[in-house]
Amino acid sequence: GKTARPLLQLHGICKSFGAFQALKDVTFDLRPGEVHVLFGENGAGKSTLIQILCGVQKFDSGRYELFGQDVAGLSPAEARRRGISVVFQEFSLIPEMTVEENLFLGHELTRNGRLAKSEMRKRVRAVLDRLGFDIPPAARVSGLRRAHQQMVEIAKALLLECRVLVLDEPTASLTDHEAGRLLAMVEQLRDEGLGIVYVSHRMAEIDRLADRITVLRDGRHIATLPRERASHGELIELMTGRTFEKF
Ligand code: ADP
Ligand code: MG
Prior knowledge:
This protein is of the alpha/beta class. It has 2 domains: 1-80 and 167-173 and 190-247, Rossmann fold, CATH 3.40.50; 84-161, no CATH class. 35% of the residues lie in helices and 25% in strands. The protein is built from 9 helices and 10 strands. The chain has a 6-stranded mixed sheet, with helices on both faces. Strands 2-1-4-5 form a 4-stranded antiparallel sheet, with helices on one face. A hairpin with a 2-residue loop joins strand 4 (61-66) and strand 5 (69-70). The two termini are 33 Å apart. 35% of the residues are buried. Bound molecules: adenosine-5'-diphosphate (ADP) and magnesium ion. Adenosine-5'-diphosphate is lined by residues 17, 20, 22, 40, 42-48. Residues 8-243 form the ABC transporter domain.
């Protein structure tokens, strides 16, 4: 529901890399059952923000509340354990291993105790089926097309049974047809009550998926708008900081 308590909230987050301030006083929240799009030009700070969400980067100041708890100093393992799954732009799969081996990795760390191999295999099949791509579990990742590698990344995130799924430009390497299936899956997860942070520049995806859109520019939080109030023209103006005559 739209008024439910947020799954996570960032307040006044600042983050510098040396002398360069990548995030300046950024506010963001995510509700269950919503797709919250992060929108902004290259270098706006989108990836830095999601790295903070999933514990890969520490922030310098501000507050991060996850499932109602303050989580300054969150580690990636802790974020995963609490139910945040992330698909980064850079792939994390091990190319020389099979799809199934990649999907098994780390599971003994993320759940109480080791899962039996047969049970794990069942879950892997179920997740691959759900994604609707014909990806053989025994195939080597290095032999897969990039689009299929991307789907294995997403399968890996889903296997963690997360409550928050973070996707950084997930359709960048997909054909329109493949992207359509990915979007359908995101909608299904949203309907199941997951909160989804979705980084994208693509207007068609934003129109289809977004419940709210947060615009970042030069590391600053510019606006958070419900999709109904965000025309393409306005989004471009907010993103670039420039006013255009007519769209
Ligand atoms: P986006 O994902 O919106 O393109 P990023 O969050 O990747 O933006 O980057 C925001 C800014 O921070 C960029 O100027 C980038 O060069 C800089 N930046 C990101 N990560 C690092 C890092 N690890 N070290 C130094 N600068 C970084
Ligand atoms: Mg990025």
